[in-house]
Design a protein that fits this description.
The chain contains 1 helix and 30 strands. The protein is mainly beta and about 325 residues long. Among the domains are: about 35 residues, no CATH class; about 40 residues, no CATH class; about 35 residues, no CATH class; about 35 residues, no CATH class; about 70 residues, no CATH class. The strands form 12 sheets. The chain has a 4-stranded antiparallel β-sheet, with no helix packed on it.
């Protein structure tokens, strides 16, 4: 009974497989490949070669003409990317590389963990002309920075400064000759600082060999003056042309009473140095005086001169009398 059951099961399976294969074969035979499409050609990439066109059935996928590879893959074009230096406080990176064509990272960077400070006894550093000196304290073996702990900082000696010697005195350029800048050197052993003298261009405005063609003259109150006329012998140029300066006119001071005269007599003087020009005036107010039989000033009591043609309140000679001269 058991053998019979096994035989029947095997027969059923055989029939099932035969039927399935027959159906699949029928389906295959049913596609007539009437709808074909082109398998597009492809360009070569960094990792794949180029392929020519092919054709296949759009319905069942049957390939009539398989794409054929031409040549080989292009390969990556590597662009090196600089790594980052690891420090005591920041992580670093190893160098990496990226393909310039496809952008793929060909070599990936690896992180290098930060070192952390490692402090050791700092060596003594003597000061130089331009750099400070250090004594004692702790310094990091990796980054060479001193320990920020106040108790472990070094004693600092300021820079010494250069021991300067002048090797070339400065010479001003003139309208005919070039000049020179000052040259220096440091005499301190081991320094080597040198500042070379440099030639400077001719200065067309610096005239040192000149002669006066017209003397300068200061103007006075009544006479014009002039500026100096100067000629350069070196470049044969008229450096300055003499020009006239107009007369200044008098600079009159306040009216003051004339000493030894009546209170109505006044004068004013020019205040410029060297000028003795002055003018005078009177402020008499003459009134008839029957008892005196003359005109008498009501302010100072002076008699009106008999040859005066002026009336009351008028000044002799139209109010002013000039005297003196300007020098």
């Amino acid at each position: 009974m058991k053998k019979l059951l096994i035989s029947l099961t095997a027969l059923a399976l055989s029939l099932l497989v035969f039927t399935s294969c027959d159906l699949f074969a029928q389906e295959k035979e049913e596609c007539k490949h009437e709808n074909t499409v082109t398998i597009k050609a492809t360009q070569a990439t960094c990792t794949e070669p180029a392929y020519r066109e092919g054709t296949k059935c759009a319905d069942c996928g049957y390939i009539f003409k398989a794409p054929v590879a031409t040549g080989t893959a292009l390969g990556h074009v590597e662009k090196q990317i600089q790594g980052l230096t690891v420090t005591c406080t920041t992580d670093g990176k190893t160098p990496s590389a990226m393909c310039e064509r496809c952008g793929e990272m060909v070599v990936k960077a690896e992180i290098i963990t930060k070192l952390g400070h490692k402090y050791i006894a700092a060596p003594t550093v003597l000061p130089t002309c331009t750099e400070a000196g250090y004594e004692g304290g702790e310094i990091c073996e990796y980054c060479h920075n001193y320990n920020p702990d106040e108790s472990k900082k070094p004693k600092i000696t300021p820079p010494l400064g250069h021991d300067i010697e002048t090797t070339q005195k400065a010479e001003a350029a003139t309208c005919k000759t070039t000049g020179k800048t000052t040259g220096y050197k440091c005499n301190r052993e081991g320094c080597g600082y040198v500042s070379e003298s440099v030639e400077t261009a001719i200065d067309p405005t610096n005239h040192v060999n000149t002669q006066v063609t017209t003397k300068a003259k200061e103007p006075t109150c009544t006479e014009a003056g002039c500026t100096a006329g100067i000629w350069c012998k070196d470049c044969e140029t008229q450096v300055a042309t003499s020009e006239e300066i107009p007369a200044l006119d008098h600079q009159m001071g306040e009216w003051v009473a004339v000493e030894g005269t009546t209170s109505c007599e006044e004068k004013a003087e020019c205040t410029r140095d060297g000028c003795d020009y002055e003018v005078s005036r009177n402020n008499h107010n003459y009134e008839p005086n029957e008892e005196a039989g003359a005109n008498i000033c009501s302010e100072c009591g002076a008699n009106q001169p008999t040859d005066s043609s002026t009336g009351n309140g008028e000044d002799v000679d139209n109010g002013t009398v000039e005297s003196g001269a300007t020098t």
